[in-house]
Amino acid sequence: MQSLYRLYPSNASCARRPRPKTPVFSICLSASKPLGCSAAICGRTSLAVKGPTVSNYAWVCFLCRSAARRPGDATDVRCRSCGKSCECIGYKTPIPPKSKLQEWEALRRLYYCKKQQGLARRTRDRVRRIHSLEKEILRLESVPSNPGRTKAVKLMKKRLKALLDR
Ligand SMILES: [Zn+2]
To answer: Which end of the chain, N or C, is surrounded by fewer C-beta atoms within 10 Å?
Structure first.
């Protein structure tokens, strides 16, 4: 992660610039940390969208360093050059110019790092929910039953099954 932020450092020259109303660097990769900015990309909005009305997201091909605009819930967005699946990087993330290899590499690393973190977090949450449901089912089954408890246990077992089947 350190090296990523070295490529997208926040530096003094950017800090002196007036801040945009829309946070340009809040990345839609379920990111808690923004990309940061560098003198090279600070303020660039070639494909970054200003304003909340545009609903198109940036879909990129890291191999070809190309981007396309599609809705965030689009399925199977293909690269126009190589035909491979594109990755959605959100709608506020600036897209580096094709020639900036290092910025593309940093973007790619950040994207996959965030994706991995998101996956780990979802797995953790799922395990927590499973344990919590199992515990609650055991607790309710250990006390005398009544229609409400029976219904609750049934519902929780259904939820548990759905979680385990995922
Ligand atoms: Zn491609």
So the answer is: C
Tokens linked to 7: 């490529």
Average pLDDT value for residue range 60-88: 94
Each domain of the chain, given as residue ranges in start order, spans 2-120, 125-165
Task: Please write the tens of the pLDDT for every residue from 3-37.
Answer: 444 444 433 333 344 444 433 333 444 444 334 33
Alpha-carbon distance values, 36 to 9, 26, 27, 51, 107 (Å)? 6, 9, 10, 20, 11
Q: How far is the CA of 58 from the centre of ligand 1 (A)?
A: 14
Ligand 1 centroid to 25 CA: how many Å?
A: 24
Mean pLDDT, the chain, integer = 77
How far, in Å, is the centroid of ligand 1 from the Cα of 18?
35
| Contact of 46 with 17, CB cutoff 8 Å | no
For ligand 1, the distance from its centroid to the CA atom of residue 76, given in whole angstroms, is: 13
Say how far apart CA 88 and CA 75 lie, in whole Å. 10
Amino acid code (one letter) for 26 = S
Rounded to the nearest angstrom, the distance between the alpha carbon of 81 and the centre of ligand 1 is 5
Given the structure tokens 């609903």, which residue do they identify?
A: 55
163: Cβ contacts below 8 Å, ≥ 6 apart: 126, 129, 130, 133
